[in-house]
Specification:
This protein is an all-alpha fold. It contains nine helices and no strands. Helix 3 crosses helix 6, helix 4 packs antiparallel against helix 6 and helix 6 packs across helix 7. The protein is elongated and about 70 Å long. The relative contact order is 0.17.
Length: about 250
């Protein structure tokens, strides 16, 4: 098992080296880059919007219900909601969700190209197929995910504000004051840095599993599952490392 893991990691590294070579046609690369940003990034906005809005609302409700002590200031609900969204949800949890949506999409798309011999056709024509297919996906997703992260933070806070505005659980004044209290700008950058690394993991690992599919449609499905599982595990692993390095 250890040997297989080492062999897989080595194969992945060689794949990444092949992917990050200079494109043969930059014009074609930028054309595909814009398309991938739209497909992988912009199309994920509705999902991020819905999830962040409701999670922000749920966090606010739970914080109100669990901080009823008179010793805890009323504004702590807004403060805790902000910290949870900035530190973990809008970066780590959101990327875990995107690993299921975007990762499976990348793996299945590239895997289908492999089993239908489209990748073999590119190789025969002398085109670096890994660079041509995968690089725009990785660059496009890494470029746009920080936008999704900041968007998730903002919408999550709006979700908490909705609870404060339309229920009597907490006043809007206390919620907004909590959001503004003891704000640390570095937490926003911390979330953005994490999402950039997580986005690279999702796109590259998913592309790897799709690129090396062997067999038919059943293997493409298995590759998509492996891509999502592996990406999720690596995201959690690097979340621990980055938290230790960036928040010491």
């Amino acid at each position: 098992m250890l040997f297989n893991s080492a062999a897989t990691f080595g194969k992945y590294c060689l794949f990444i080296v092949q992917v990050f070579r200079s494109p043969d046609k930059w014009k074609e690369f930028f054309k595909k880059l814009v398309f991938e940003i739209s497909k992988l990034g912009v199309d994920s906005i509705p999902l991020v919007l819905i999830i962040s809005l409701f999670i922000g609302a749920v966090i606010t409700i739970q914080m109100v219900l669990n901080t009823t002590s008179p010793l805890i200031p009323a504004y702590s609900t807004g403060l805790a909601t902000r910290e949870i969204l900035l530190l973990e949800f809008s970066s780590t949890m959101m990327c875990l969700i995107l690993a299921g949506k975007v990762g499976s999409n990348i793996a299945s798309e590239i895997g289908t190209m492999r089993v239908t011999e489209q990748i073999d056709a590119l190789d025969i024509m002398g085109i670096n197929s890994a660079n041509f297919i995968v690089l725009p996906k990785i660059v496009g997703f890494v470029f746009f995910v920080p936008v999704l992260c900041v968007f998730s933070m903002f919408v999550g806070l709006i979700g908490g504000w909705v609870i404060a505005e339309f229920t009597s659980m907490i006043s809007v004044e206390n919620y907004v004051f909590g959001i503004q209290s003891f704000f640390t700008e570095w937490y926003v950058w911390y979330g953005i840095i994490k999402t950039v690394i997580f986005a690279f993991i999702i796109a590259s690992v998913s592309a790897y599993y799709g690129y090396f599919v062997k067999g038919g449609s059943r293997e493409v499905g298995r590759a998509s599952t492996k891509a999502v599982v592996s990406s999720s595990i690596l995201i959690l692993f690097f979340d621990v490392i980055l938290t230790k390095l960036l928040l010491q």
